[in-house]
Input
Amino acid sequence: MSTFSRRKGNSRVMSFSAPFIQRPVATTLIMVGLSVLGLVAYALLPIAGVPQVDVPTIQVSAALPGANAETMATAVAAPLERQLAQISGVVSLSSTSSLGQTDITAEFDLSRTVDSAAQDVQTAINAASGQLPKNLPDPPTYEKVNPADALLMSIAVTSDDLPITTVDK
Output
C-alpha cells in the first residue's frame, strides 16, 4: 500500500493532500505564484487613507475684543448655538471660545448640500443678532469648511537654549 492511498475494499481512495505531497516542487511553485498574485492584488486595491466624503460643515466665527472666554461662551456662542440647533439636519455643534474669539462648527446631515446649509446658517445668524452684545464690532461670519482638509498631525518644537529663528529652520 502506498503512502498516498488506502485500500477500502477493492477500490483506492486518494486523499486530497496526496498530489501535493507527491509533487513538492509543483506545490512550492503554486504557493509562490499565489503569494505573488496576492501581493499584486493588494497593491492595486483602491483604498484611500481618508475616505472622500464631503460632509456639509459650516464654521461660524465672532469676535469681541477684550472679552474673556467665559463672556464669549455665554454672551456670544450660546445665542448663536441656540439658533443653529434649530436648523433641520444639524448632526453636531461644537464651539470653542477664547480671549475675544468664538468659533462654532456645525456639521450637517449628508443629505444636505453645503450651499443650502450656508443659507440656513445665515438666517440663524440674523435671528440671533438681537441676542448678541450690542458692542460686537462686526456681525458673526461663516465659512464653508471641509473636515477632510484638516491636518492629521501637527508638531511643535521649542527650545530654552536656542532662539526661535534657529529652531524654526
In short: Helices lie at 18-22, 24-43, 69-85, 114-128, 164-167. The first helix runs from residue 18 to 22.
